[in-house]
Design a protein that fits this description.
The complex is a heterodimer.
Chain A (H helix, E strand, L loop, with lengths): L9 H27 L4 H20 L3 H18 L7 H22 L9 H13 L2 H9 L2 H7 L9 H4 L6 E3 L7 H11 L3 E9 L9 H12 L1 E6 L2 H5 L6 E8 L3 H8 L5 E10 L49 H11 L6 H10 L14 H61 L4 H12 L1 H4 L2 H36 E3 L1 H4 L2 H12 L3 E6 L4 E3 H22 L3 H6 L6 E10 L2 E8 L6 H10 L11 H6 L21 H11 L3 E7 L3 E9 L4 E9 L2 E6 L3 E7 L5 E3 L2 E6 L2 E7 H4 L11 E7 L4 E6 L1 E9 L5 H4 L4 E6 L5 E5 L1 H23 L1
Helix pairs in contact in A: 1-2, 1-4, 2-3, 3-4, 3-5, 4-5, 4-7, 5-6, 5-7, 9-14, 10-12, 13-14, 15-16, 15-18, 20-21, 21-25
Chain B lengths: L25 E5 L3 H13 L3 E6 L2 H11 L5 E5 L7 H11 L5 E6 L3 H10 L3 E5 L3 H12 L2
Helix pairs in contact in B: 2-3, 3-4
Classes of the chains: A alpha+beta, B alpha/beta.
Chain lengths: ~800, ~140
């Protein structure tokens, strides 16, 4: 649907988008710099340049709306540069709002459509600043509702021309007017996956004997009609044993308002239901919807068709700090459900996934420093030379073979001659010839036998040495090549770190906390595929630090700390691992509160004694939240659980340490790349398996007599711990002689979950290249991939986390079966 | 204990237990207490419902549901039962037929279990001690949908 549809220019467009994104990031970063240091000329210049490049680019690719809009920004920046306009908070807000619109425009274009939202508010704000350049104008602009307000709380009541006419019982209300925060709106929008979103407010009958069940009852009814995105109060609270007279449900559903009302009215349970359709201003999904207003007009059939006039009425889209940020609205709620031990249909799951890919298209573009490519080319040429040397050696080996056979045959002839001659000489000796004379003659005739292979030996020695040297060279080159190719995929972590200043700024405003974000080690490099999946968990962790870690300024002052909290985001290399730390100097984790909560939630047995570190680890449990009241930012108690899961998916680990009152530090350890891992090779029967070394805790050699049975499970003692055993041969159904003198056990897992894998023998450590398995094998549980060993045979790579789950599941099944039979 | 209330005059109104087409709704009762099962049976049959089977525990209820399906319209499910509790049976039934209409029967004080059941897909619940009016009302609200 793009105006610029020249198939030959796909490349150009791609370049434009990737460059534009870079410019937008640059803009944002420098505006934030400007906020802290209004006099920074370099930042202004940088902003100006970026806006200018963006403008030029967008007019080249004929994206007029973008060009016009950036032109406005540029004008304003020009004035700033000429000192006609003074930089203040309002101006920064207006600029950021403008950039959000630019982002939105780009996203729309990338998805093949056009920005349909209304930017007039922001536009007028921009020109208001420009108009006189005096602070008076700035003040005026700040009062003008749409502009600066558009950032934090979008215009509540941009009147909709369509609304007043529709004398509907179920009116439409903009999401922001419902008092939702940006994050909530973003979450709702993304998890709705294109469906209409309704807010259903239900009053419950208190006289019902089980009135505390009512909210869940209505939840179930709503879920039948669609997907419940969010509840107020939160789902977790509804689950507690309290009666809420009124609960609001945000439901994404194809059903109309009447249908929802019918479902909401449960006799004896609910007394009234008010249904409101929620509109996200200016935010249609990328689908080629011809009717942008349709989703929020009343009933699909009864709705007046959206007129063009209805379009500009959509107020500017509320600035979402991270447009591309997938949010886990549905996911979170699901996690809570899962916690309740219940399942949801897979369909809901799919919505979540859909929502996770806003505007992504095609293969991603990777920018690589040309020196890296040069380096690779260099290595390749070396490899070519190396190959030539091998060719040469091989032909020399051919020649050697020839000379060997020649030498052999002369040797043989000579020997034969010797044997033939021997009787003659014996005869001669018997006839009285002097032995000495005979000896001399023999030596003369056959002395050559000793030296027959000398030439060959010399040739062989030179060639063997040459071969060895070349093979060594080859090893070096392939090693370098491997590293070089890997380095191509390496991108600096600043790619995602750079998004945090804005995030922290917005969040700290929402939370009314003062936070200073420090970023260190942003040049640390990581595999691109890892980086892409890292943003989410990092964001969760940072949100968590801001929300639960850093205190409000008052609390900080009372605690004798500086008013501004500090959040540190730091990346560093450690051997083959990357360490990312998220540290705050906030209130730290209250160990007692954590334990208490864990006991309450049934995660922890009351009588269990825990070290502090073990207690900290509890916060990663699903469904855990110590915050007294749940906030919209990080507090559904699922955030950290998600962080842990996502990091583990990347073969990494998360740990947390904290000092009460001093702060909290999250440490994420990640492998540099996912493509090559260090594996411990083990043998089971005739098969060889590779266990990722990162998940190997230790290995043992035990006698069968050391294996004990507890509760029908094989276990054995490791120091003070009891570890259950999983026999790989039984798990993978491999025949092997189980009776032997010693068994080898590899203990895998993390600190809290361990299992011993029993194998036939340990082979050793080796770098293994992971080759993904094709579809038909991917379902094999416990297998992450395959690799080819030096001798050409295939070894399967064990997926430890799956194996742990598998073991657990089997255990549970067994237990269930057992219980059934007992009864 | 049968009271006059349990035998309303059929002439005054159409019995609730009939589908629009005149055939009765078919109900499976799953309850380990014979007393409660009987009570429900009486309430239901008095309104014209057809109680097709009474199962004494969750497992039997689940097996019976599978056997009867699709000739079954509604299940009343006690929560606490031997062998397989109501919640597990509910989950099994929903797994088998996700449109199954299951109404939980719960004693007071089992709020958390009722919540779990509702989230798992139960359509409604009835609180013991059973009240005739409430039972019928909740059944109707489920069947009406």
């Amino acid at each position: 649907m793009s105006d610029y549809l020249d198939p030959n220019n796909e490349e150009l467009l791609k370049d434009f988008f990737s460059e534009a994104q870079g410019q937008v990031d640059l803009l944002e970063q420098n505006i934030l710099v400007l906020e802290n240091d209004p006099g920074n000329r370099d930042a202004v210049d940088e902003i100006f340049r970026a806006a200018h490049t963006l403008k030029g680019g967008s007019s080249t690719v004929e994206m007029t709306e973008l060009a016009e809009f950036t032109h406005l920004i540029e004008d304003l920046l020009d004035d700033i540069r000429a000192d006609k306009v003074r930089v203040d908070g309002g101006l920064v807000d207006a600029l950021l709002a403008a950039i959000d619109i630019v982002k939105e425009m780009l996203d729309k274009r990338m998805a093949g459509s056009r920005y349909a939202g209304d930017a007039t508010g922001v536009k007028s704000a921009l020109s208001a600043y420009r108009a006189s350049g005096s602070s008076k104008a700035a003040a005026k602009a700040r009062q003008a509702p749409p502009a600066p307000a558009a950032r934090t709380s979008p215009p509540a009541a941009e009147p909709k021309p369509a609304a007043p006419k529709a004398a509907a019982r179920q009116e439409t209300v903009s999401a922001s007017a419902l008092g939702l925060s940006e994050y909530e709106i973003l979450e709702l929008r993304e998890s709705a996956a294109g469906k209409r979103v309704w807010r259903v407010e239900i009053d419950f009958d208190e006289s019902n004997v089980m009135n505390t069940v009512s909210a869940i009852h209505a939840f179930a009814a709503m879920r039948d009609a669609g997907t419940v995105l969010k509840t107020e109060p939160d789902f977790e609270k509804l689950y507690e044993d309290t009666f809420y007279p009124t609960v609001r449900y945000f439901v994404a559903s194809d059903a109309d308002g009447d249908e929802l009302e019918r479902r909401a009215m449960i006799p004896d349970v609910s007394t009234a239901a008010r249904i409101v359709s929620v509109a996200f201003e200016g935010v249609q999904k990328a689908e080629p919807a011809p009717a942008p207003a349709a989703p929020r007009s009343q009933g699909p059939a009864a709705a007046p068709k959206p007129t063009p006039a209805a379009r500009p009425a959509q107020p500017a889209r509320p600035a979402s700090p991270e447009t591309a940020t997938p949010s886990g609205g549905v996911g979170e709620l699901q996690a809570e459900l899962a916690k309740a031990g219940l399942q949801r249909e897979a369909a809901d799951d799919e919505h979540g996934h859909d929502a996770r890919k806003p505007g992504q298209q095609g293969g991603s573009i990777l920018r690589v420093d040309s020196r890296r490519i040069d380096n690779l080319l260099n290595l390749v040429s070396e490899a070519v030379i190396n190959k030539a040397t091998f060719n040469q050696i091989s032909s020399q080996f051919g020649e050697m073979q020839n000379s060997l056979s020649i030498a052999q045959s002369t040797h043989r002839d000579k020997l034969k001659e010797l044997f033939d001659a021997l009787p003659e000489y014996l005869e001669a000796i018997r006839q009285g010839r002097a032995v000495k004379e005979v000896k001399k003659e023999v030596l003369e005739r056959f002395g050559g036998l000793f030296a027959g292979f000398d030439a060959f030996e010399a040739e062989y020695k030179t060639n063997a040495a040459k071969f060895r040297a070349t093979a060594q060279n080859l090893g070096r080159i392939t090693g370098d090549l491997q590293e070089g190719v890997m380095r191509i995929r390496m991108v600096p972590i600043s790619q995602i770190f750079s998004r945090f200043p804005r995030l922290v700024r917005d969040l700290s405003r929402t939370l009314q906390k003062k936070v200073d974000l420090r970023i260190e080690g942003e040049e640390t490099e990581l595999d691109k595929s890892v980086i892409e999946d890292l943003l989410d968990p990092l964001m969760h962790a940072v949100r968590n630090a801001l929300d639960h870690g850093v205190e409000t300024p008052d609390e900080r002052l009372r605690a004798g700390k500086a008013e501004d909290g500090t959040v540190l985001l730091k990346a560093s290399n450690e051997g083959n691992m990357i360490i990312i730390e998220i540290a705050d100097d906030g209130k730290g984790i209250d160990v007692e509160a954590v334990k208490k909560k864990a006991v309450e939630r049934g995660i922890l047995h009351p009588s269990k004694v825990l070290t502090d570190n073990e207690a900290f680890a509890l916060i990663f449990e699903p469904g855990f939240s110590t915050a007294k009241s749940v906030t919209n930012i990080s507090g559904r108690g699922v955030g950290l659980d998600v962080v842990k899961r996502q990091i583990e998916k990347l073969n990494g680990s998360v740990s947390v340490s904290s000092q009460h009152g001093k702060g909290t530090r999250f440490t994420i350890k990640l492998p540099l790349t996912l493509a090559i891992i260090q594996g411990l090779l083990v043998r089971v029967g005739k098969e060889i398996y590779s266990i990722p070394i990162t998940s190997v805790v230790e290995s043992h050699r035990i006698k069968p007599s050391e294996i004990r049975m507890i509760d029908n499970y094989e276990v054995f003692n490791v120091r003070n711990d009891v570890v259950s055993l999983l026999r790989l041969d039984r798990l993978f159904r491999i025949r092997t002689a189980e009776q032997r003198e010693y068994n080898f056990v590899v203990i895998v897992g993390t600190s809290d979950k361990k299992v011993g894998l029993m194998v036939d023998s340990l082979i050793g450590e080796e770098d293994v290249v992971i080759k993904p398995l094709r579809d038909q094998y991917t379902n094999s549980p416990g297998i992450a991939g395959a690799s080819i060993l030096g001798d050409g045979s295939v070894c399967l790579i064990i997926d430890v986390s799956q194996l742990l789950e598998l073991g657990l599941k089997r255990e549970l099944e067994e237990r269930r079966r057992l219980e059934m039979t007992i009864r | 204990m049968k009271t006059k209330d349990d035998f309303p005059s059929l002439n005054e109104r159409k019995p609730e237990g009939m589908k629009p087409d005149g055939t009765p709704w078919r109900v499976l009762i799953v309850d380990d207490s014979m007393f409660v099962a009987k009570q429900i049976t009486q309430i239901l049959t008095s309104e014209g419902y057809q109680v097709v089977h009474t199962a004494a525990d969750g497992l039997e209820g689940y097996e019976k549901y599978k056997e009867l399906y699709p000739n079954i319209d509604l299940v009343t499910m006690d929560i606490t039962m031997p062998r397989m509790d109501g919640l597990s049976a509910l989950q099994k039934i929903i797994e088998f037929d996700k449109n199954a209409k299951v109404i939980m029967i719960s004693a007071l004080g089992k709020q958390d279990l009722v919540k779990q059941a509702l989230v798992a897909g139960a359509k409604n619940y009835i609180v013991k001690p059973l009240d005739r009016k409430k039972v019928l009302e909740r059944l109707q609200s489920v069947l009406g949908k």
